[in-house]
Design brief:
This protein is of the alpha+beta class. The protein is about 35% helix and about 15% strand. The protein is built from 6 helices and 5 strands. The longest helix is centred in the middle third of the chain and has 14 residues.
């Protein structure tokens, strides 16, 4: 079947199998491999993307469900001006660690900051509670999100334009 979907502001018309999961569509068909495929049971959260502005675990969403909708992946966070403050926070505060959970953590954290620009540590921990960091380094992740919240207003002055892999 054919779907039309906008991913990171680019429109795609693609033929897909009706049972194809969104995570596989993004990774295998569009080559957007920043979204990680972890547990395949919605437990780990490494596959979080936004579907019409709402974080979803793409291993539990059929690609056909994205027809006519907008998807934002971790590849869509950075701009020509540089890294998103959340990405910069993860870089500054060593929130990356092994990097497996990072794409999902970044997408959830960006969504949190878009809805609560100055979250408490408890609000950050609650927001990321659906995701597993297998390094168990939640302290650095929380610190990274706080860094992003504190530096968001001045991010255009503070962020580096260097490429970073997240």
């Amino acid at each position: 079947m054919q779907i039309n979907v906008t991913v990171n502001d680019e429109t795609y018309t693609e033929e897909i199998e009706p049972r194809l999961l969104l995570v596989h569509f993004l990774r295998d068909q569009l080559s957007l491999t920043g979204t990680h495929w972890g547990c395949d049971t919605s437990n780990c959260g490494a596959c979080v993307v936004w579907l019409d502005g709402t974080p979803v675990k793409s291993c539990t969403v059929l690609a056909v469900m994205a027809h006519g909708k907008e998807v934002r992946t971790v590849e869509g966070l950075a701009t020509a001006d540089g890294l998103d403050p959340v990405q910069e926070g993860f870089r500054q505060c060593h929130g990356l660690q092994c990097g497996f959970c990072t794409p999902g953590m970044l997408m959830t954290s960006r969504w949190l900051l878009d809805h609560e620009p100055d979250p408490s540590e408890g609000e950050i921990r609650e927001a990321i509670s659906g995701q597993i960091c297998r390094c168990t380094g939640y302290e650095n992740i929380v610190r990274s999100v706080r860094w992003a919240a504190e530096h968001a207003a001045s991010s255009t002055d503070d962020t580096s334009t260097e490429e970073a892999t997240v």
